[in-house]
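Let us practice reading a record.
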Amino acid sequence: MSKEKQITFRKRISLLRTALIIAGFAGIIHFAHRECCRISDKPFYYKDIKGPLSASSGQEEFQATAYCVTGITKSGAATAPGRVASDPKVIPLGSLIYVDSPLMGGIYQVLDTGELIKGKIIDIFIPNYDMCKEFGRRMVKVKVLRYGFLGYPPSKGKEDNSR
C-alpha cells in the first residue's frame, strides 16, 4: 500500500474507534437512565430489614400520610423515594428515621416540611398516586436514628458556649 492509502486507512480506523466509543457511552447512559426510571416506579419497601432497627425501644407513635407531588423540598433536594416531610420542631430537617409500618416501613431522611404537618405527623413521598391513596392516613412507629444534619438532638436549655 502506498503511504497516502495508509494515512487514509488510519483516519478511517480512528473515526470508527471514536464513533464506537461515543456509541458505547450513549448505550451506558441509556441503560442506566432506564434502570433508574424503572426502579423509581417501584414501591419503596424495606420489609426485610431485621435487627436493631426493628426493635420497639425508642419508637414513638406518629400519624403518617403519603404525597406524590414532585418538586424541590424545603432542604433544597428533589423529592424522591426515601424522603419524608415532618414538623421541624419535632424531627429536624436532615434527620434519619426508621418507620415501622407494614406497607411503607424502612429508613427515611427528613428533607421536607409541610404547611399541614404539625406535631407528630410525617408525610412519606411515594411516586405513585394510586399507592398514595392506598396508603391513606395511618398510625406508624417512628424511631429517630440521627437528629438533623449534625447528628445530635436539639438542646432543651441554654447552649453551653464555654468551649
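A brief commentary: The chain has a mean pLDDT of 77.
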